[in-house]
Amino acid sequence: MKKLSFLLTLLLFVLPAITFAQNSKDAAAAKEVEALERKRFEAQVKKDYAVLEKVFGEDLVYTHSNGKQNNKTEYIQSIREGKSVYDKIDVEALNVRAYNDGKTAVVNGTITIYQPNKPDGTPNVAHLKYVVVQVKDPKKGWQVVLWQSQKQPEVKS
């Protein structure tokens, strides 16, 4: 009986410490992923292909707000060819949740994308809600493996 009581007491002290260690890993990972999300948006605007090659996983599934899907090669090529052009990307909301001891992250947020004006001269602005899944590769670091976005109605004042 004394052994059982001792084990239960020990568990009461050990389990919170384990949970705290896991939560701190997840919290650190969430901060890291948030910074990387902002860096990736900046790389898309600046056409920084070295960053894009690094942050997109080889098995990327990139689903645009119109439903069109690209893999990593196709998406980066669309930027090179001028099919995907970003003048500016404003991050309005960003929420990162990390799991699995900081090895997996789910991101959701709201962004506004500014693209070159339409042929008639009107602004080309898209308000998007999006979801991203990132995984941490031991050799390559954080990589986006899934992007899904949905257009939001324009906010009129």
From TrEMBL:
Residues 1-21 form the signal peptide. Gene3D superfamilies: 3.10.450.50. InterPro entries: DUF4440, NTF2-like_dom_sf. Keywords: Signal. Residues 33-144 form the DUF4440 domain. It holds the Pfam family DUF4440. This is Nuclear transport factor 2 family protein.
